Amino acid sequence: MSQESLALYQAMSTLRAVRRLRPDPIPDDVLKRILQAAAWAPSGGNVQPWRIVVARDPAIRQQIGDLYRPQWQVYGHNARKAMEQLEGEARAKRGRMLDACDHLGEHMGRAPVLLIFCFNPKHMAITDADLGRASVVGGGSVYPALQNAMLACVSEGVGCTLTTLLCYEETAMKDILGIPEDWYTCAVMPLGYPVGGGHGPISRRPVEKLCFENQFGQTLEL
Ligand SMILES: Cc1cc2nc3c(=O)[nH]c(=O)nc-3n(C[C@H](O)[C@H](O)[C@H](O)COP(=O)(O)O)c2cc1C
Q: In whole angstroms, how far apart are CA 187 and each of 1, 88, 128, 153, 200?
């Protein structure tokens, strides 16, 4: 395998949420490469029905942080209750993750950059919109851009986390950021240099549990 391939696999396998971020600024050239990576993402019909508002103004970041804090407090409270069902190492691990989430909940507005991902459904062919279940196809034209940005962050040593809780505050977010009526928000990604080790080992289900041969549930032999 070439060095380039190895680096890409390395980035994918260490892309974890980094929630403790230093307030130090991210240089423009680094930020530009991260945004370029987002712009390379595929989308249905190559329409790119997304935009990013890059929030670097401290007052704007603080307003967004102030909206995120109470949303996280509610979500985090429930997540801690659910954690009580766990035992041993699983519980300890979840506790560590929730501590990091609490930190982000308190400090979101102090991350030097917040990327606010916006989308316009009018520009999307949402092929599962009328199936009477949660529609996910539209997101497929937006979230690859987030994934590309996050992979670029790994490559740049910049910490990041995909967050979606601020969708609950969409009206306020649109107000703060001057987002036009027919554009909506789907994620806020705080960026910053990590306080600790940053990106690193991840925990995911094994391929055999996720991928099947010919029939759903049938073991795939590779
Ligand atoms: C669609 C989506 C929404 C998420 N929303 C949040 C969020 O609002 N706040 C947060 O702290 N993390 C959020 N995350 C990060 C996940 O919690 C994290 O990726 C997952 O727990 C796996 O942890 P790891 O990435 O550190 O391995 C989100 C991730 C995804 C993919």
A: 34, 33, 21, 16, 22
